[in-house]
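Hey, quick one: can you model this chain's 3D structure?
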Amino acid sequence: MLKDLALALRLQAVDRKIASLEAEIATLPKHVAEIEKKLEAHTRQLEKDRAALAANARDRRQLEGEIQTQQAKISKLRDQSLQAKTNEQYRAFQNEISYAEGEIRKAEDRILDLMEGSEALEKNVAASEIDLKKQTQHVEAEKKSARDRTAIDQRQLAEMTAARKAIVAEMTPTFYTTYERIRKKTKNTAIADATDGRCEACRIALRPQFFQDLRRGDQILLCESCGRILTYTPVVDVSGDLAASQQIA
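Sure thing. Here's the predicted structure for all 249 residues.
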């Protein structure tokens, strides 16, 4: 095989590895951002549960304040009822006292409901805190894994970049220029095999004479359809040689 073509095959393998490493390095920060978004969702849930619990406590305090207000009003009305001069005035005071007592009972019933609800809310907060802690630990582990993976990828990328430079330095400049032009156009698939008589990339059959020229292996040929560099690498059948060697033995 021609030296430039052999080098190009090595270079294509390196270029594909470089592209893979660069893609992974670019993807890792996105992966970290995605898991951090999940953590934000758990944080918001905890804030929501805490807000619900705080609202429950606030409503209870407000109702307790209303009860105190009604109790003070009842005390005042009772004092006033003792000074009533007519039965009609006395009944009016009693009606107001009954109404205030009814408001107190309503507030007390509502407080009981809120107290029962607060138990579930406290459980929600506790569960959300545990869940957030677990998710935080998971995110930190994922971020560390991503940092470690990035460091490994960057080292490999540096190695591959150095290997690429070494290969390019051995290639004929004009052929390298051709390779680069095709590589950029075909997304790292500058070379295609045509051993079966058709380009493996575009699947177009080669002209008979063109295929014969390719088989001779004395020049570098480009696919007449897609422009890729073609290789001819037939499988060598060694079964006959093996059988012969066994007979000799």
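One thing worth noting: The radius of gyration is 42 Å.
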